[in-house]
């Protein structure tokens, strides 16, 4: 015998359909928000500078080559900033 539904009563598959619909809407909104955020965020390091790298210099005391940002200047010469072997050897 077929089941008859009273008007206003939910059919068995209707509730699941609504849940899936709202889940899909939520996922779509999240994907759009993520895509817009990715486009508007600028990369931390421009690609041109990242490919080029940083200048390497030799320590005037021990001769080790290191990035310029890891050196300090002493009397017009670049020396290791945080290398205990170089500091102990001077």
Characterise this structure.
- The protein is α+β, with helices and mostly antiparallel strands and 90 residues long.
- The chain has two domains: 32 residues; 41 residues, Wheat Germ Agglutinin (Isolectin 2), domain 1, CATH 3.30.60.
- Helix content is 44%, strand content 16%.
- The protein contains three helices and four strands.
- The strands form two sheets. The chain has a two-stranded antiparallel ribbon with strand order 1-2. It has a two-stranded antiparallel ribbon with strand order 3-4.
- Strand 1 and strand 2 form a beta hairpin.
- The longest helix is centred in the N-terminal third of the chain and has 29 residues.
- The chain is rod-shaped and about 95 Å long.
- The model has no long low-confidence stretch (mean pLDDT 80).
Structure in a nutshell:
The protein is of the alpha+beta class.
Which features characterize this protein?
90 residues; Wheat Germ Agglutinin (Isolectin 2), domain 1; alpha+beta; two-stranded antiparallel ribbon; rod-shaped; 2 domains; 4 strands
**Strand order across the largest sheet:** 1-2
What integer is the average pLDDT?
Answer: 80
Q: Largest beta sheet, briefly?
A: 2 strands, antiparallel
- Counted by DSSP, the helix tally is 3
Along the chain, the helix and strand elements come as HHEEEEH
């Amino acid at each position: 015998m077929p089941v008859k539904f009273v008007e206003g009563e939910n059919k068995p598959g209707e509730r699941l359909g609504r849940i899936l619909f709202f889940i899909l809407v939520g996922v779509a909104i999240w994907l759009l928000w993520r895509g817009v955020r990715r486009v508007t965020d600028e990369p931390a390091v421009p690609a041109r500078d990242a490919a080029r790298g940083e200048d390497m210099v030799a320590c005037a005391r021990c001769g080790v080559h290191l990035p310029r940002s890891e050196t300090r200047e002493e009397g017009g010469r670049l020396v290791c900033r945080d290398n205990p072997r170089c500091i102990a050897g001077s």
